[in-house]
Amino acid sequence: MDIKNLNDVPAFSTKDGSEIRELLAHRNSAIRNQSLAEARIPIGGCTAEHFHPLAEEIYFITAGSGKMRIENETREVNIGDAVAIPPGQKHKIWNTGGEVLKLLCCCAPAYEHADTILTETI
């Protein structure tokens, strides 16, 4: 049985500049076709716009508030919001609130740096 606690998982930076803690993926569990991670974006911070040719993603906001852009549409996001990000869609998220923006990221197939194409730098 694979059980990972967020407090025991080391952080790393993704290509888009997010601080990520990967909870479950093929790198650390029996999971083979998806990944689950927590991303943290500091106050006033954002990710670099990017897309994933293969992976579809779900962002689920667990703390803070922000602004999410997918292609040409931008919306506010808050605690409890789930965002669907289809493969190939350029996306970016900003922390517009007064606390760290935290979100769960589900990727299928699992997150890989090689499947992240940056369309801007920050």
The CATH superfamily title: Jelly Rolls
What CATH architecture label applies? Sandwich
> Which series of helices and strands comes N to C?
EEEEEEEEEEE
Number of domains: 1
Biggest sheet record: 6 strands, antiparallel
State mean pLDDT (0 to 100 scale). Answer: 96
Helix and strand composition category? mainly beta
From the N-terminal CA to the C-terminal CA, the straight-line distance is 39 Å
Report Rg. 14 Å
Count up the helices: 0
Strand content: over 45%
What is the helix content?
under 10%
Low-confidence stretches: none
What would CATH call the class? Mainly Beta
Number of strands: 11
Task: List its traits.
6-stranded antiparallel sheet, 3-stranded antiparallel sheet, 122 residues, mainly beta, Jelly Rolls, 11 strands
SSE layout:
Layout: E1 11-13, E2 19-24, E3 35-41, E4 50-51, E5 56-63, E6 65-70, E7 73-78, E8 82-85, E9 91-95, E10 101-108, E11 117-118
Antiparallel strand pairs: 1-2, 2-3, 3-10, 4-11, 5-8, 5-10, 6-7, 6-9
What does this 3D model show about the protein?
The structure is a single chain. This protein has 122 residues and is an all-beta fold. It has a single domain, classed as Jelly Rolls. Helix content is 0%, strand content 47%. The protein is built from no helices and eleven strands. It has a six-stranded antiparallel β-sheet, with no helix packed on it. A three-stranded antiparallel β-sheet has the order 7-6-9, with no helix packed on it. Strands 4-11 form a two-stranded antiparallel sheet. A hairpin with a 5-residue loop joins β1 and β2. The radius of gyration is 14 Å and the shape is globular. The model has no long low-confidence stretch (mean pLDDT 96).
